[in-house]
Queue: 3 jobs
Job 1
Amino acid sequence: MSSFSTLNTALSGLQAHKRVIDVIGHNISNVNTEGYSRRQVLLEPATGMKIASRFDTDFSWNNLGVNIAGVNRIRDQFLDVKARASLANSASAARLDSVLGGVEGTFPEPSDTAIAGQLSAFWNAFSDAANQPGSIPQRAAVLAQASNLAASLNQAAGSLQTQHTDLSSQLTMAVDQVNTLAQQVADLNVQIRAASVAGMDTGDLADERDRLVDQLTSLTGAEVRPIEYNQVNVMLGGSSLVSGGRISPLKVTTLGAFPAPLDQLQVQQTQLQWADDSYPVAGFGGDIGGLVQGLNDVIPRYMHDLDTVAQTLVTTVNTIHNNGQGQDALNDVNLDFFDPAGVTAATIKLSSDVDGQPSRIALGAVGGGALDGSIGHQMGAAGGLANSPDAIHRAMIGRLGVEAQAATTRASTQAKFAVEAENQRTSVSGVNLDEEMTNLVMSQRAYESAARLLSAVDEMLDTLINRTAV
């Protein structure tokens, strides 16, 4: 073994452990950096074997020491998949919970000023007026309660329409964000490929790409598949959103009216499509999945239920009212109480037959006389019927309460799953300062030992060169 070759052995130790210390410093510096994955230097012994031929295995003392096999970026692919799936489920559940919370806010039950209270007050006003058919103030109170009820239904319908419009705008912005993120991921794929081919470290580029991929997953529920040269493909329902350095952008399209019985609504179906061929996107979830469900299911369903309440109210009241008469037995007959053309929550209003004309309200039966209140009493009892607007409204509020509570519970549960999955992922890829300090001390001692070896060899060579034969 050459004495000078030992210098190379010691030098390899100095260079290797200096690199380890540099990487540990990089880890410590990025302990609070979002999305950073810790690095680990892989060391391997430098081989002294030289295989010249099948039967010749000469050993070389000139090739001893340590080599840097590479710098690993510590990630667990299984935990990445688990964390991203949990993130997408949590985002979808949170969005659906938010949508149902908005619908619940439209119906602040129980409350005297909410629709249920307004319905009850409306029927009671008819009963009170029936007890005093000749009292104009009592009749005026009926019109006032009817106006309040119609206004409450109009307001609730307007609120649901506004929520639907807001969700549509949010979906458009979310899809624009998806397209932007997808392009950024594709650009990073190109850079990572080039760096990998050149043999450069791609850890920081891969960290930034994975951070963007996490955002894409939260928005769409996409799946990630690694490919050659450390690139990834991002898939939606088996189709590529990102394929290497290329993307397939998304778009939002309005299809038209809903199928029956929602075909009379003023809102239309929304579909997520591929921009290139207008083919529907399948297998998506995340925040966008929750938005689409809110647009195509939750809000239209409750808009239809509210319209059913209004339609039943108009039909019930007008049917009874048409069979009675007002104070003018000749002219105040066969009158509509609510406008028969306004049979939705957004359009319900008083009929021109009675609006501003309390004396024309039909409280008595035809030919029953000025003091007959039988129709008014019949009207007052209508709220207790099995198929009354009140019963339909109560059933709707009951379903909404159960659905909203279930959504809140699911959102809370999914959020806990997402936090747990992220903690598991971070426990592997995150920087642990205690562990890094331990590794730093070990590398420092190894560096000092290599330096001591270098000094010892230098002293030995000094003795051999300067003192031999003196």
Job 2
Amino acid sequence: MNAVVLVVDDHPVVPLALRSLIEARFSGVRALQASSLRQAKAMYQDEPRLAATVLDLRLPDVAGLEGISALRALRPDVPIVVFTGLDSEPLRRSAAALGAAALVCKNENATILLDRIAPLLAERLDALAESAGTAVARNADTIELSPRQQQMWQSIAEGMSNGEIAERYRISLNTTKAHVRELLQRLGVRNRTEAATMYYRARQARAHEPGA
């Protein structure tokens, strides 16, 4: 699941540059743009992968700090970095009081903005991964696997080849291949890597369940 960073800015050029910089800096992150607060609100409601927001304070339908309050009311879990041409200590204090995680002035180097986003994004990605892991565990729990398929799944997660799996369980290589092929289809994954990822996320999520 790719995370999303939302750039809220109506400038014709700046958001395109920011999106390219964000996607180049952060692997597995997609940057999207909203040109107004109304568009940003819609994306807040429709985009579950939203991990961080870069917000300009001057938009067609809102000016000043009201945009921070409006977005925080919808998704207080999504950190907001204010990216504005305005800068003063009172403005920084007011933005922080409304819940902005940081404020970066547009006349500063773009790497400063990326450096401010980095720790916020890392924390948010961890939260999204944990949530996704819980969902994976629930989905995995609804998939009925035979004892042999459970063995195949664990062996794949351990990085074993088909030959090693065949030797472990004393079955033929062709039978092993058939079991693995059926397992991948049952899990709904494309390859062994996805199957292994699903296995460990499901196990981790179960370990955090109450009573585990």
Job 3
Amino acid sequence: MARYTGPVCRLCRREGIKLYLKGSRCHTDKCAISKRSYGPGQHGQRRTRRPSEFGLQLREKQKVRRYYGILETQFRKHYQEAVRRGGVTGDNLLQILETRLDNVVYRMGFADSRAQARQLVMHGHFTVNGRKTNIPSFAVRAGDVISVREESRKRDYFKDFGEILAMHNAPQWISMNNAQLSGTVQNLPARDQIEVPLFNDALIVEHYSR
């Protein structure tokens, strides 16, 4: 599977906001954007010009895409699915992104970042309704139960993970069973249940509607 392998702190500096791509490091003074709030590269500190309408739309799309760690082709597919569903396209898009299996694993507290969650899923450490699922883009539905595989619970990474989950606040739409290392998707998340940086999804819709 294609993925971005460059320095992730560069992405935060390019977008000018914290995208929380390095887990706990992003909450410390070591965060790159806290020390260098200007853009990356040798011209990062130059005076910026006023962005065009297209530039604003592009930057907003890149923020969301990079926040969820998705490449352009797959992000476009998610957008097309959001359009097909009808209703508010921006809300549909965020719901689709939130219900990807890798993001759900991250929201449940099994990983410090979405990149780490994606790796755990790809290595086959999780089941959905009892069936091993190693596709990060798998779309979970209301009622689905996501659990750590029995074989994986013997690994050092998952030992005593129940205590770690007890200190983690999962979103309202996920019901956790810390002792069983599992969680149930109670309902598909509504817009007000999705905790994301301030995104203007209307600009994303305008970008793809050009």
